[in-house]
Amino acid sequence: MSQGKHVVAIVGAAVAGSEAASVMADRGILSVVFDQNPRPFGKIEDGLPRWHVKQRKKEYEKISAKLARPEISFVPLTTLGKDLPFEELLRGWGFSAVLLANGAWRDRPLPVEGVDAYAGKGLVYQNPFVYWFNHFTEKNYRGEQYPILDNVAVIGGGLASIDVVKILQIELTRRALASRGIEVEMLEFEKKGIPKVLESKGLSWGDLGLKGCTLFYRRRVQDMPLAEYPDGADEKAKEKTHQIRARILENCREKFLFQFHDQHLPTGPIVEGGRLVGLKFVRTQVVGGKAQPLPGTEFDHRTPMILSSIGSVPGIISGLAMKGETYEVEDWDTGKIKGYEHLWGLGNVVTGKGNIQASLKHGSFVAGHVASTYLGVSGEADGPGLYAAQEAAVQETAGKIAAKIGARPVLAMERVEAILERARSRQRQVGYDGNLAAWLAKVTPPDME
C-alpha cells in the first residue's frame, strides 16, 4: 500500500461483478463493489425461479466467497443514479476504472402501441412477476402481488418465457388441487411434471377443468433461443441446434401442459372498461430471420392477463447516455462504453443474456482486459482460453487502448485510503460492518426458500 494501488468501482455484485472483482484481486487491484440490494445475488436470487434450489445455493456460495476477499469492499443497498450519482462515481471518487455489472433488470417494452398504459391493468412484465414468485411465500414480503389466473397469454419465446409459463402452470395446478384439499409442494411439480403428480392423486388435467396458459412466439420453433448455436456452426450444426430447440419445447409442453403458437405477432390491444382484456394478433412468415405479417390472417385473442417475457435490458442511469435500449458501447467484445475513458460494461449489460456462465465468462474476460490493457497489471489469466472466442476479436482494439493509454499510474496511498474511507462511510450508513457472513445472516429472511 505504501507505493499506492489501483482501485476500481464495480456496480453490481452478482455473477459478473463478483467475478470481475475476483479477477482484479488476483492482480493486486482493490475493488469497491456496489449493489442495489441487501444481498449480493442479483438475478440468481430474484430472476432465477426458486425451484433451482441447488443451483442458487451453489451460486450464492461462489459469489460470497469472492466478495469476502480482503481486496474487495462490498457496499450493499446502494443504487447507481439514486444513492450514488453517476458523475460522482465516475469522477468524484477518483477510481482507476469503473465497471458496470448492473445486469438487465428492465423489461423490454412489449412492442404494441399503447399497451403500456395498461401495466397493472391486465398487462404484467416478467421481471416483477418472477421477483414476486421468488418472494411471495415469505412472511414479511410486502411487494407487488400477482394473481394466478387461467388462460393467461404469455408473449415470448426464450428460456425466460419458459420459466414464466412453468410458474403459471405449476401455481395454477397447485392451487386447483389445494381447493380440493390436496396439498402438493411446488418442487414436486417442477421435478415430476404436472401429469405425473396428478396421476399420483388419481386425477388428470381434464379433471381440473383448466385451459392453462398459452405461449405466443413471433417466429418459428426452430428460431426459439432455447439453445445457442456452437461457435463456428455450419449448416449441419445449426440444424442439430434447431432439433434440440424443438425437443426442449416439446419436453416442457409434455411436462407442464401449456399451449403454444409459433409465428404469431401481437399488433394491438383489446381494451374494455379501462383494462386490457386481450391482444390482436397476425400470423407471420419468417424471411431472413425476421417475422413478417401475413395480410388476412388477423384475429383477436381474449385473455384475463397478458404476461410479456420478450427480454430484459439494462436500467436507465441518470447521466449515462443510452443508444436504443442499451448503453452506448463502442466495443461489444471488451464492453468499452463510448465517450468515457475509464468506463466498461460486463455481463448482462453487454451480452444481453441471462445465462449465468455467459455472465461469468464475460465478467472475467472484461476484468482481465481492463487490468492488462488499461491499468497495466498483468496476470496468469491473460493467456489464450479465458474467453477464447472474444480474444482474437479484441486484439486490435486492446492494442490500440494499450498504445494510447499505456500502463496507468497507480493511485497514491492517500487517494486509495480516501476512496476506501468513503466506501466504509457508505457501509456504515446502510448498517453494514464489513462482515459479509454476519450481514447475510442479518438480512436474509428466515423463511426464504
List the helices and strands and how they pair.
Blueprint: E1 7-11, H1 15-26, E2 30-34, H2 42-46, H3 53-67, E3 72-75, H4 86-92, E4 97-100, E5 106-107, E6 123-125, H5 126-135, E7 153-155, H6 159-178, H7 186-192, H8 194-200, H9 205-208, E8 214-216, H10 235-256, E9 259-261, E10 264-272, E11 275-287, E12 290-293, E13 299-302, E14 306-308, E15 312-313, E16 322-323, E17 326-327, E18 329-331, E19 336-337, E20 343-345, H11 348-351, H12 356-374, H13 388-405, H14 413-430, H15 436-443
Parallel strand pairs: 1-2, 1-4, 2-3, 4-20, 6-14, 7-8, 7-14, 8-9
Antiparallel strand pairs: 5-15, 10-11, 11-12, 11-13, 16-17, 18-19
What does this structure look like?
- The chain is α/β, with parallel strands linked by helices and 449 residues long.
- It folds into two domains: 7-105 and 314-443, 3-Layer(aba) Sandwich (Rossmann fold), CATH 3.40.50; 106-308, FAD/NAD(P)-binding domain, CATH 3.50.50.60.
- Helices cover 39% and strands 18% of the residues.
- A five-stranded parallel β-sheet has the order 3-2-1-4-20, sandwiched between helices.
- The chain is globular, with a radius of gyration of 24 Å.
- Mean pLDDT is 87; it is low at 369-406.
Gist?
With 449 residues, this protein is an alpha/beta fold. The protein is built from 15 helices and 20 strands.
